[in-house]
């Protein structure tokens, strides 16, 4: 039999273990005490491992939602992290002049650890400067061809559906992504990636994106993971690089080359477009590249999700679909929709279309990350709640958009009529709430105008040109959310009208 001293670890190791346990125990207690006035899952208050665990299980949004339902708003989901579903608080935090700033979440939005862009910088002055330079490009004020470029890509989409999917199912989750990526590349740097003409997932972009998002979620929510990923070794092993021949890196490389060509060839630049606008405003080549990358990352999955979900929800609801189809046909017959692609001014006047889209935005807010903001020095009080300095507050868009007290007992269902039945005041509250999924105030999505134009016009043309049905209604749609909502196998059939 071995002597007891040979099986026991050496005394030094025991002491180290005890000290380590004491350290973690005391840190957990101190962490918990920091915000003990806020309720939330017990382990969430003691360590960020709770949030990490939810990410690993792809249930961050559901866990936030459960916490809000159980503990009320705001709920505590980290040692110094709260979650809210209150659109008024979001407006308060983001308002011009508010002292709240971006939290550590935004550091994780840097694609390249050394380089910030408009969506990642936490420096208020740099952010305001970039926004003021870019806004005229995004809202179309200072570019000639935003809508006409979009029309080219809508035409490609209609052709693709008409010719490549005649009488056979198409996965609208996939095809909608081809479309939005080609739209973004056209408006961002003047030429489409070519997803629709190839009718394939170029560079395995979709596959790579789906595997990258779980990592992205860990990076944005955990500064330790951010630090690890920023190390040269991890950058070499895991980060997308513009020299890659597959995945997101390949798309970024495409953008980089397009920007470089424009800088080398300033004189031959075509009409006043977005890149041209950024260059005129003095953005450097590197800044233009970074901003092009943001457009691809921020603008593709977001718009794709709303487009495919709204169409799918409509197809699944024959009453709503019939009303929208009738509205579009009526406008086409009375000459108020231009042909072959309806202009934005005319489609904005269609009331049922507007209701159908706002309801789609409400059902599937696509960018489900925390977008956490930091409480200013000295703390802040809002609606009688005191938020201590240094606390971060994130937003759960899904809980906000399905609040029964705002949208009614049937808030979990897709019902565009709710937007038409309500009085003007209530509709304003509906819209203000759902619009918060674009961010608000000084952090509002720069691409909101482009996304809304793209969604309105594309939905009209898809319904004006085709009749849609679900290919296999029993199959279901696998959905995962890692800061961004992804769907697979949304198989539908389009029949030309
Ligand atoms: C339905 C579609 C979209 C949704 C729901 C959406 C949502 C958002 C959200 C939530 C933010 C962050 C707000 C915050 O920090 O509090 C954001 C920022 C941003 N989005 Fe979008 N977005 C959409 C489409 C687009 C498109 C199409 C583009 C590009 C053409 C785009 C470009 C940007 C940019 C550049 C920012 C950073 C703005 C800033 O930091 O000041 N987005 N978006």
UniProtKB/TrEMBL annotation:
Family matches, as SUPFAM superfamilies: Cytochrome P450 (SSF48264)
Q: Give the InterPro entries listed for this entry.
A: Cyt_P450 (IPR001128), Cyt_P450_E_grp-I (IPR002401), Cyt_P450_sf (IPR036396), Cytochrome_P450_monoxygenase (IPR050121)
The organism sits in which domain of life? Answer: Eukaryota
In alphabetical order, the GO MF annotations are: heme binding; iron ion binding; monooxygenase activity; oxidoreductase activity, acting on paired donors, with incorporation or reduction of molecular oxygen
Which keywords are on file for this protein? Heme, Iron, Membrane, Metal-binding, Transmembrane, Transmembrane helix
State if Ligase is listed as a keyword: no
For this protein, the record's Pfam families field holds: p450
Write down the required cofactor(s): heme
Stated name of the protein:
Cytochrome P450
